[in-house]
Amino acid sequence: MIASHNPGKVIEIKALVNPFGIVVISSGELGLVEPEETGSTFAENARIKAEAAAMVADEPALSDDSGLCVAALDGAPGVFSARWAGPNRDFRAAMARIEAELKRNGAQDARAWFVCSLALAAPGQQTEIFEGRAFGTLIFPPRGTRGFGYDPIFVPENYRQTFGEMDPGLKHSISHRAKAFAKLVQSAFGAP
Amino acid sequence: MIASHNPGKVIEIKALVNPFGIVVISSGELGLVEPEETGSTFAENARIKAEAAAMVADEPALSDDSGLCVAALDGAPGVFSARWAGPNRDFRAAMARIEAELKRNGAQDARAWFVCSLALAAPGQQTEIFEGRAFGTLIFPPRGTRGFGYDPIFVPENYRQTFGEMDPGLKHSISHRAKAFAKLVQSAFGAP
Questions:
Q1: Which of B58, B64, B65, B74 is catalytic?
Q2: Is residue B14 over pLDDT 80?
Q3: DSSP 8-state class, residue A58
Q4: How do beta strands B61-70 and B111-121 pair?
Q5: Is a pLDDT exceeding 60 seen at residue A24?
Q6: Measured between alpha carbons, how far is A22 from B71 in angstroms, rounded to an integer?
Q7: Can you tell me the ipTM of this complex?
Q8: Which chain B residue lies closest to A112 (C-alpha atoms)?
């Protein structure tokens, strides 16, 4: 089970685990209530969600906590990435807020990175955490309608398109989520 | 008035503004209640504290929000820096947690930076924010008994001592707090 209510994340996770023949059911589809994300790191939030789902469902659960860290904002929005978009998941507003905070700062530094922390929890077992990062730079105004969240302002290093413009297959091969999944797969099935 | 209940911060702020002949009273000394720090950035928290103090006291108030950002922890503890030390301000435990999280990560990157965000609020005026950063690397185990908070694990760039070992006068000339104050002074009195 995937402990996530975020449709964009669930679609990406399904695409990533599809080649392994794993059937994915999201906690939203199961009707489970998402616990409060009270952690101060991505790993802590991923752990909270996976352990809550594993306990309620009494089966292994995989959760994803992810977000965008902006260097000139000391890592913000970070674990607050979803909250900056508010209850209506308004990421246009959240991207505009990043632009405004950088302007207020007079920031010259456009570096940013996405983080994905995956937690794999199972009843009676130690939870495992796998993390991936994608480094890049921010660009304004937002570009592209693919992906979700902050994708339209993020240009991954070595590429010219934003995650919002990029072919989903390419994004899934270089993203923070792909890197975290690669670590999970390597841990589960051994080194390739 | 200084909107801070943290004795270490108040001592440093007094030392920094002393040369300007400014008398400093902390909000703790005045018996004001510290508002909840609900912000997701240092600037937001500094603003919350200064505006609350200015409103209650009906006079200009200066507040300080600061913390340590660790590169390999995506900026954590960041705005959670005080909270990681818990209600007893146990920074030994907070420093041990940073060490443990870096080990769990297998992190090779020891870069970190302190941030100080000063907010100057006055009744009926726009609040002004001044920020300073001190970049450096982390070292374990902690060294030195001077300063406060995370000072004993932070070696500022171009120096070999931690902030916990360094002469306070030297620290006050290179710290994140000194840089933020330099911006405040420049804004208040013009360029030197």
A1: B65
A2: no
A3: T
A4: antiparallel
A5: no
A6: 34
A7: 0.74
A8: B74
